[in-house]
Amino acid sequence: MSQPDLGEIRRALRDAPDVRPAHIFAGMPYVFRPERANGIHATYAFEIDGPDGGEWTVEIADGVCRTAEGAPERFDASIGCDASTFLDMVFDAVRPGEAFVDGRLRVRGDLALAMRFSRMFGG
Known about the structure:
The chain is 33% helix and 26% strand. It is of the alpha+beta class. Strands 3-2-1-4-5 form a five-stranded mixed sheet.
């Protein structure tokens, strides 16, 4: 099976009306790049604030990405921000490091693991 055209997927989602963080989390397993996750066995907790926010769990282990709505019992890294900042990061309007420095992105737990997250997805 060939890799999906991630640029095309990103453009379609960016231009779609009413895209919410829940849509992004649902699609994560499909754009996950297992070759970029060698050696990672981690649970990420996402806390997205605001009207379209919520809590999600993303587990990366053995080259597989699983997502679920709700907070995990334990996490290796927790990433929090508002829904607008989250979508800006997904669509490359802002880099995660920039959002962190600006105080728009909160990280608890393993900072290095959190910073590796976005590299396991997309092009």
